[in-house]
Amino acid sequence: MTTPTDPFPPALTSLRTTLSQLPTHLSSLTRILSTARSTTTPEATAASQDLTSALDDAAADLADLLASVSAAERDPSRFRLTPDEVRSRRDAVTTLEGEMRVLRAKAERALASSSSGGGLPNPSAFEEDGEDQDDADAYAAYEAQAQEQELREQDEALEGVYGTIGTLRAQADEMGRELEGQAELLEDVDSVADRVGGKLKQGVKRVEWVIKKNEDAASSCCIGVLVVVLIVLLIIALIV
């Protein structure tokens, strides 16, 4: 049975990407509002629309991320997650929710200024003052928590890499021992082959010697027979 596709990683990446774009849209709108003569200029309108769209995308991504965490909490075994991994996901989502609240509050104030018919906003209105200071403190706390979470994830990834390296090293040692054993076997085979080859050469020489001796003996027998026949013929000739 195959493991279902885990929706958390892509949802987390998408939300982080969207949140990273929000400050850029917010800064762009703030800059345009601080320099434009009217809040209804095409540039201000386009910047407001971009910021609103980014907020909507972030809200949708956050909803998807929360749904994936809830699914993991209901049935961790479905995605082969440990309780610690599920808690880690919940902590990551809590951190991103805090960042989302801070950015949304600043974005909504900027959008409210751009949609009002009054005077143009002072850029200092978006600085850390009063309530913004509290938001900044909360954002700093969430940022520190996010960095801690990221460092923890990096440590876990490094531990996995170290484990993989250890496994590869053990496999390499085992392969080295097997190759050494095979080399010894090859040396034994070569030694046996040399001995067998030497014995075969000796056997061939002996066979050749026996054949040669047999050939010499056969020649002697033939000569003896011929001598006997000649003697008999001479005796017969003398008698006759």
Secondary structure topology:
Layout: H1 8-35, H2 42-74, H3 83-115, H4 131-239
User: What is Rg?
Assistant: 48 Å
Let me know the average pLDDT: 76
**Quantity of strands, as a count:** 0
What proportion strand? under 5%
**Helix coverage percent of residues?**
over 70%
What structural category do the secondary elements indicate? mainly alpha
User: What does the main sheet amount to?
Assistant: none
Distance between the termini: 116 Å
Based on Cα principal axes, name the global outline: rod-shaped
State the low-pLDDT regions, or none: 117-131
Q: Helical region count?
A: 4
**Series of secondary-structure elements, N-terminal to C-terminal:** HHHH
Structural summary, described in words:
There is one protein chain. This protein is mainly α. 85% of the residues lie in helices and 0% in strands. It has a domain at 8-127.
